């Protein structure tokens, strides 16, 4: 099982709903947050920067696949998911609605590690995720 957290925004490159980190950075840079929320958000983003490798740094065979790819957490990545749920709560406390998607079908796998998978959605999936 794979888990993805999405906002209502559509990513221009992947043509799917923008993910958790897009929503977090948008909140960070486009809204003025109370200091305690900003500190917590920066703390969570810092944790992910330390403990979650950016899959886009890996060498992907085709550049166009990179632009269309989306990230999923593995259901076994419990600590990462716990932190993601903390971020979801913080976003929702600041009026950013986040939806959780769970799926076995994620598309063509382009990158994988212990916590996540980067996948290019199959054509019939693009509007659903």
Describe the structure.
The protein has 129 residues and is an alpha+beta fold. The chain has one domain (2-125). Helices cover 39% and strands 25% of the residues. It has helices at residues 20-30, 35-51, 63-68, 78-93, and strands at residues 2-10, 17-19, 70-74, 99-103, 108-112, 116-120. Strands 1, 2, 3, 4, 5 and 6 form a 6-stranded antiparallel beta sheet that branches. Strand 1 and strand 2 (17-19) form a beta hairpin. Helix 1 packs parallel to helix 4 (78-93). The model has no long low-confidence stretch (mean pLDDT 88).
Offer a few descriptive terms.
129 residues, 6-stranded antiparallel β-sheet, alpha+beta, 6 strands
Largest sheet: 6 strands, antiparallel
Encode the helix/strand succession as letters. EEHHHEHEEE
The dominant shape is: globular
Total domain units: 1
Low-confidence stretches: none
Q: For the residues shown, what is the average pLDDT?
A: 88
Radius of gyration: 14 Å
Helix percent reads 25-40%
Class based on secondary structure composition and strand pairing: alpha+beta
Q: Strand portion, in percent?
A: 15-25%
By DSSP, the count of extended strands is 6
What count of helical segments does DSSP give?
A: 4
N- and C-termini, Cα separation: 15 Å
